[in-house]
Write a structure and sequence with these properties.
Nucleoside Triphosphate Pyrophosphohydrolase; alpha+beta; about 40% strand; 7 strands; globular; 2 helices; binds 8-OXO-2'-deoxyguanosine-5'-triphosphate; single chain
Length: about 130
């Protein structure tokens, strides 16, 4: 099975991490994720992430460094998640597709009910943010 490439944003502000909860009608309803979406044909990962964050929250962003990736086989589909650090430039966060969002402390990253593909990314992020 071919993996579907999906982008994921790690938005940091005042030492906290932005996470979003998938909606009732979505796959993985109720699970938390780093928001983003499927990369469209002939689109770069960075362009995808900028587009998705504007569509999903109405925010303008700047895509920064690559954090890492994660592959997960959900049985019916295989996801290849690519995570980037993202700076929030402007716009209030207005939920368009998610049911909730929150800003969490890095210490909380281990205790979130993540979409399965996000667990390794959350671990990697926690290591990065708490090692200094
Ligand atoms: N965006 C995003 N999707 C994730 C994460 N973790 C994870 O397993 N997924 C899965 C859920 C979905 O099966 C797939 C991405 O779907 P999506 O619904 O967010 O993407 P999309 O807006 O482009 O999709 P669509 O509804 O237009 O089909 O990746 C994550 O951290 N962020």
């Amino acid at each position: 099975m071919k993996a579907i490439k999906v982008t994921a944003a790690v938005i940091l502000k005042n030492g906290k991490v932005f996470i979003a909860q998938r909606s009732k009608n979505d796959d993985l309803s109720g699970k938390w994720e780093f928001p983003g979406g499927k990369i469209e044909a002939s689109e770069t990962a960075q362009a995808c992430l900028k587009r998705e964050l504007l569509e999903e929250f109405g925010i303008e962003t700047k895509i920064l460094d690559y954090l890492g990736d994660s592959q997960f086989d959900y049985g019916n589909k295989q996801i290849h998640l690519l995570a980037y650090f993202v700076e929030h430039l402007s716009g209030e966060f207005i939920l368009q597709v998610h049911q909730n969002y929150k800003w969490i402390h890095p210490e909380e990253l281990d205790f979130i009910d993540w979409a399965p593909a996000d667990i390794v990314l959350a671990k990697k992020l926690k290591q990065k943010l708490t090692k200094e």
